Amino acid sequence: MKRTRLLLLLLAPCFVTLLLSAPLRPQESKAGYARQYLRYVYSVLHKNFLYPVHEDAVLRSAIREMKRVAPGLKSGGDTWAGLDEAFDSAVAQDPSSVSPVGEAAIRGMVNGLGDPYSSFLNARELALVKGQLAGESFTGIGVELAPSKSGLMIVAALEGGPALKAGLRCRDVIASVDGTPVKGRAFDDAANLLLGREGTAVRLKILRGGKACALSLKRAKLRIPPAFLKMLDGATGYLKISIFSRNVYEEVRSALGGAAGMRRLVVDLRNNPGGEFEAALRVSSLFVAKAVLVRVRSRGLPDKVHASPCAQALSVPLVLLVNGGTASSSEVVTCALKDNRRARVVGTKTFGKGLIQSYYPLVGGTAIKLTTGKYLSPSGADIHGRGIAPDVPLPENAGDKAYLDSARKALGE
To answer: Could you confirm whether 284 is annotated as catalytic?
Structure first.
């Protein structure tokens, strides 16, 4: 069943692509196919979104976004008939506007869900996401972001990036970019303001603890190594996992396999913003054998249990290092190891993002990123908005030495 559903999701965009690119007689035919495609997109949202979908809010938002592209269009209300009228009105004004108006409608539909983690991605945005998950380099200031009422909240400042070097940290809020306020803007539109050419400057207004400060950073070309391992001494290994990219499992497994003589291990997940859910499960299975790793809740379906398929796993004593920048997939790993009493957790409370996003491909190399599930810890705890409390708490401003000293103590050194 799952395979069939995936095949349908992949075929539908291809089918409509053929329709839109086929020779057509009047312009109305092309617009008609586009209107049908908007109904297909709505069906994807309605079927897969984690929460109930309110049709009137989705259509109202779609029409509002269409008006940004074609200000003079006419609409008969927040209904499918009203959306069709708006679409036809825009195309009548400008016959070449089928694609931009259609894209605006899809973006508006997703915005109408009211979910800050769901979004429409144009071809450039989707390519950037794919590149990051594949471990490719990208240009920016090196931050993972989440929506907030005041602007763009920093989930994590990435290792080696301009933001971390400038002292930005988890829960700082970017209020403006180059003088442009980001409050009230669509999340992806606001985040795109941070993009630019390597070496160019970007001015930020940062909110922290009720105070504002100005900061200027230079964009840099970044490639985040997913993981590396080094020995702190002859018996203690230190494994840093920066992001759960597509190839992180292979890198971690290879590193562990080459750590001769290692009798205990510190796994550092600080400032790890997450990544691929499946990658987090595979890495967890290296440390936990034949046990529940996570439970996933979707709308209208029984909870799905993901268990480690491995009969054997690494058995040395473990400590996990976490902080407020430990989020999403890295919290999956933290829950898996903590609940199964496989590791002690040292640091500060984690970020608390327990939602899963899935990508649905659309025409023109675009896609919808949609919240489709919520994960629960093996014991059934919901950490979204709450975070994971450490076993060994440290101050928010604790440095590397304090973390490693506490880790060694927790390992019994």
So the answer is: no
Residues whose CB falls within 8 Å of the CB of residue 189, separated by 6 or more in sequence, listed in order? none
Of 321, 324, 348, the residue nearest 170 (C-alpha): 324
pLDDT digits (tens, 9 = 90+) for 333-392: 999 999 999 999 999 999 999 999 999 999 889 999 999 999 999 999 999 999 999 999
Task: Quote the CA–CA distance of 356 and 307 in Å, as a whole number.
Answer: 17
Look-up: residue for tokens 């209208």? 300
Q: Which helix (H) or strand (E) holds 256?
A: helix 248-257
pLDDT for 17 equals 33
- 84, containing H or E segment: helix 80-93
Catalytic residue from among 285, 328, 330, 377: 328
Q: What share of the chain is helix, strand, coil (3-state, %, to 5)?
A: 35, 25, 40
97: annotated active-site residue:
no
Beta bridge partners of 145: 154
pLDDT on residue 29: 66
**CA angle, 250 as apex, 244 and 254 as ends, to 5°?**
125
Of 288, 273, 292, 310, residue with least CA distance to 117: 273
Q: Which domains does the chain have, with CATH numbers?
A: 2-114 (no CATH), 137-222 (2.30.42.10), 227-410 (3.90.226.10)
283 within 8 A of 252, measured Cβ to Cβ: yes
Contacts 24+ apart (CB under 8 A), 68-76: 68/104, 69/97, 69/100, 69/101, 69/104, 70/94, 70/97, 70/101, 73/101
Q: How far is CA 274 from CA 25, 248, 255, 277, 329, in A?
A: 48, 11, 20, 8, 4
Measured from the Cβ of residue 150, the count of other Cβ atoms closer than 10 Å reads 13
The one catalytic residue among 353, 374, 377, 406: 353
**Residue 221 near residue 200 (C-beta atoms within 8 A):** no
328 flagged as catalytic: yes
The tally of CA atoms less than 13 A away on the side-chain side of residue 329 is 23
Choosing from 119, 268, 339, 406, the catalytic residue is 339
The arithmetic mean of pLDDT across residues 390-407, rounded, is: 95
